[in-house]
Task: structure prediction
Amino acid sequence: IGSERSELIPLLLAYQDEFGYVSEFAMQYIADQLKIPANEVYGVATFFHFINKKPKGKFIIRLSRDMSSIMKGAKSVARQLRNDLGIRFGETTPDGMFTLEWTSCIGMNYQAPAMMVNNEVFSNLTPPMVHRIIEECRQEARTRRPTVGNVGETFSSILSYSSHAPNSALTRAVEEMTPVDVASELTVSGLKGRGGAGFPTGVKWSLAAKAEGDVKYIICNADEGEPGTFKDRVLLGKYADLVFEGMTLAGYAVGAREGIVYLRYEYTHLRPHLEAVLEARRQANLLGENILGKDGFSFDIRIHMGAGAYVCGEETALIESLEGRRGEPRNRPPYPVEKGLHGRPTVVNNVETLATASCIIARGVNWFTSIGTERSKGFKLFSVSGDCARPGVYELPWGMTVRQLLELVDGVGAKAVQVGGYTGELVPESQFDRVMGYEDLGIGGSIIVYGKGRDMLEVAENYLEFFVEESCGQCTGCRIGNQKLLDGVRLLQKGTCSNRYLNDLIGLSHSIKTTSKCGLGQASPNVFIAINEHFKEEIMARPVLAA
Ligand code: SF4
Result:
């Protein structure tokens, strides 16, 4: 057992792997070893969805309930699961074989509905398939855990990532460029963070390079939890080398020796592949000491598993959890580039940002700036799901309209598109000529298409259930306000909401946005505001009390 607080979450997960759950006795034992109060260990353990605090079944079945899954039949799959297992969601079978749970998006939206059985992923589910999987588990359980899974890709138009020689960016950097050159070239390229916040990557690297500190860190944010997003999973599965190369470039530019991939728990199935790629890079002297023969340039990467908390996608929350704390966003400033992990200058970049940085250094600024628009340079990966004939990951230049994207994915006839995941914008048909780019819809990349027959109150209910579940609870508006909005949506569904109360809830939406500390609370009311703005007739078609 380790002795550093930052080992707390890996220790909790290791205990769970061994014993199936983390008992209070185990928490006390870990607390004693790490010399931290037991209540803090309990506070961390109870924060994360995938740390089991009580015994669960040998097979934990987690069915994704994001909107794409619901639209593609998750409810009929859920019925089949309940019937086959004879239990409700949240319960364990009396023989201790199965636990049945809902979970939020597991990054399989274009192959929805999807579920995890322990760490295996099953997608494109139908009720007969689910029945078969349960039977297989029952039979195989006597001898081994299930090994079947079908995480395949049905599409891909990712071109830029494979169109230059492997590791040419890193070779160019160490042979021709100083660390300052690397950050400067990215600044000139106009690359902005692809996770959604859109901060200029070169500027971030420069700030971290200039920040004082003998120890610095590069973190790859692979906690892809925004519902509807799965492009980072595809990148890590197909182009992990490029992502690690981007981290190494960042290490070179910033002067960091350590890189950490913060991998979401739902992507545990990717870990063996990623570890193998890292090892191959060490063997090729692309990681380790004196990389590619460059004296003094040393950098290595390790993988840290998340434990299931959407809010840890926010960089300061991610850092908190890396330090062994609850993943609660910090006040800023100071920013991570000055005081991040363990108080040291830290760069946190999204998976796609790092892979794109490699492409730019390999192929040059002019190539990148010739694509896109004035304020949005280059290309972007879009994860497309929902009511369209061709869902998948698309690599497209910035500047396309929502309408053009819909034509490409055959989502013609949609009534609305969720652009940028649940925290993005619900764009109605009348606004399909809006542009995807930082001029207008600067987004993280999740696109969910809603066809004509979709009930927008069901959409709002689904989003708000997610936000209520995922709020870290620090801000009163976010913690209580989102629950009030969810209650309001349910009153509207039942036709028992008054006009006055509806207006109060719209007012509440705006105050949640302004009083919340992080992006979750700042964006969670967007859907409530949007359905009232764009789908008022649909809402009013149900009875609304006058007073
Ligand atoms: Fe936590 Fe919500 Fe506040 Fe973000 S806005 S810090 S998730 S309570």
User: Anything to note?
Assistant: Residues 142-156 have pLDDT under 50 and may be disordered. The longest helix spans residues 476-494.
